[in-house]
Amino acid sequence: MNFKSFFLTVVSVGFLFIFTGCFDLDSNASTGENGVLRYALYTDYEAAGDLGTGILPTLVTHRISVYSTGAENLGRYDEIYHIVEPSENAIIISRDSDYSVPDLTLKVSKAGTYTIVTKNSEEELDRIKLKFETPASLEVVTKVREPYEKTFVKATGSGTITTEEGTQIVFIPYFYTSSNVRMIGDIDCEYMADPEWMVVPDVEWVDETENSSWTGNYASSYYLIEEGDIEFTIWHEESGITGTQKFNVTASVKD
Question: Which residue of 56, 75, 134, 211 shows the fewest CB atoms closer than 10 Å?
């Protein structure tokens, strides 16, 4: 196991330990055409297929991790870089690394098939073809943690979710294609509750002193604090695609 693999394993285990039951980490990975590298895209939801056969949404920034298969010596890691073909309508950034094969971020603005080519100063190391489509609809996985419970449970069904006052909810959004195929790749969304006064956004406590406060905001996590009906609108700003999720909040059964 190389340094990056070990580091990512430790981080992933620690992350899942802290947020037990809140997020499931799924890897859509494929080996390149030359068998030299493994390309992987991690998501917070389950997505069918692998990176080579799955469908990625346009207008989304995707971070792709790259690993050696051990098939051949790669030389100096700091001389490895990635390009995308065709380069028109695509932005790619290689992440410099002295200790492992550099990762990359990729954003495509037009549907089509794009090829990531990984090279060093002397030759092509590997390549992989990726299929992009314009997303057609947005859905969410909704997970709930009822008051005083320690774990999150995935809500079933796509209709109104009934839960009690004081419940914490987490949204994991994803796109569908026009042919109703779940796409690969995490997306950042905006959230709006109606009525807004029925919810409190979740904030992570980082550090607290008498004269300062350090917190981090979870845009996709909320507490339901009032009884009644509430509807969330979830939208991806760049594509303009929206989705909704309704809740019926009942009185707390806890004494």
Answer: 211
Instruction: Tell me the pairing of strands 124-133 and 55-57.
Output: parallel
Residues 247 and 92: their CA atoms lie apart, in Å, by 40
pLDDT in tens, 35-84: 999 999 988 888 777 899 999 999 999 999 999 999 988 989 999 999 99
Say yes or no: domain 137-250 is CATH 2.60.40: yes
**CATH 2.60.40.10 in the chain, residue ranges:** 3-133
CATH of domain 3-133: 2.60.40.10
C-alpha 5/C-alpha 228 separation (Å) is 47
29 SS3 class: strand
Element (H, E) at 85: strand 81-85
High-pLDDT (> 90) share of the chain, %: 69
- Whole-angstrom distance, CA of residue 48 vs CA of residue 69: 23
Cα torsion at 162, 164, 169, 171 (round to 10°)? 10
Q: What is the signed CA dihedral for 180, 33, 90, 25, rounded to 10 degrees?
A: 50
- Residue 9 gets which letter from DSSP? H
**What's the chain's Rg over C-alpha atoms?**
21
Expressed in angstroms, the distance from the first to the final Cα of the chain is 51
> What is d(CA 199, CA 136) in angstroms, rounded to the nearest whole number?
29
Q: Region of 240 please: left (phi>0), alpha (psi -120 to 50) or beta.
A: left
